[in-house]
User: Which sequence fits this backbone?
C-alpha cells in the first residue's frame, strides 16, 4: 500500500473542483511556470537549480531530469531524488491525486543511482530504492526495492537485486 495522507472534501463538486482550498492558486501558478521552463531547458544544472530553489525539491548531485519530465505541480516539495539518478524523457512524478470525494498527498522518494525509463508515471507515496531500474512506460504504483529491475502497468518486479546480480555475472562469462 502506498503511503499517502487522505483528506475528505466537503462542499460542491469533486476534490479537483475544490483544488484551491488545499493549495494556493499562486503556488500552483508559480510552480507551473518553473516546471515549464525546466521541461524545455537542456541544462541539467539549471533544471536542478530551478527545482531546488523554486520548488523546494530535494535533488542530489549529478541527477539528470531528461527533457519534458513533469514533477508534481502542486506539492513538488514532497519529491526527493537521490544522487546520480536519471529520470527519463516525458516521465511524470506525482505527489498528489485528486479523487471524487477526497484527495491524497504522499512523499515520493527516489534513491541514489536509480534509472527511470521514458514515459513512466510515479504515483504519490512510493519509494524507489537505491540502484533500482524502472523500464520505460511503467506505472509505479508501489514501492520498488533497492537494486530491483521493475516494469509494466501496473509495475511488477522483473528481477530482484540478487537475481540481477546473478544474471549480470552469467552475462559477463559469455
Assistant:
Amino acid at each position: 500500500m502506498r503511503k499517502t495522507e487522505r483528506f475528505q472534501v466537503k462542499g460542491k463538486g469533486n476534490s479537483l473542483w475544490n483544488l484551491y482550498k488545499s493549495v494556493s492558486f499562486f503556488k500552483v501558478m508559480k510552480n507551473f511556470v518553473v516546471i515549464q521552463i525546466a521541461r524545455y531547458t537542456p541544462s541539467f544544472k539549471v533544471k536542478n537549480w530551478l527545482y531546488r530553489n523554486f520548488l523546494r525539491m530535494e535533488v542530489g548531485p549529478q541527477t539528470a531530469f531528461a527533457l519534458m519530465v513533469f514533477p508534481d505541480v502542486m506539492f513538488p516539495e514532497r519529491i526527493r531524488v537521490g544522487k546520480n539518478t536519471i529520470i527519463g524523457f516525458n516521465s511524470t512524478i506525482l505527489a498528489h491525486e485528486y479523487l471524487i470525494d477526497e484527495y491524497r498527498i504522499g512523499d515520493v522518494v527516489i534513491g541514489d543511482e536509480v534509472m527511470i525509463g521514458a514515459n513512466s508515471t510515479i504515483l504519490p507515496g512510493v519509494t524507489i530504492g537505491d540502484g533500482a531500474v524502472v523500464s520505460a512506460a511503467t506505472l509505479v504504483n508501489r514501492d520498488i526495492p533497492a537494486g530491483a529491475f521493475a516494469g509494466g502497468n501496473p509495475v511488477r518486479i522483473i528481477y530482484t537485486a540478487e537475481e540481477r546480480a546473478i544474471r549480470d555475472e552469467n552475462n559477463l562469462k559469455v
User: Anything to note?
Assistant: The chain has a mean pLDDT of 95. The chain has one domain: 5-173. The helical segments are 25-40, 44-54, 161-173.
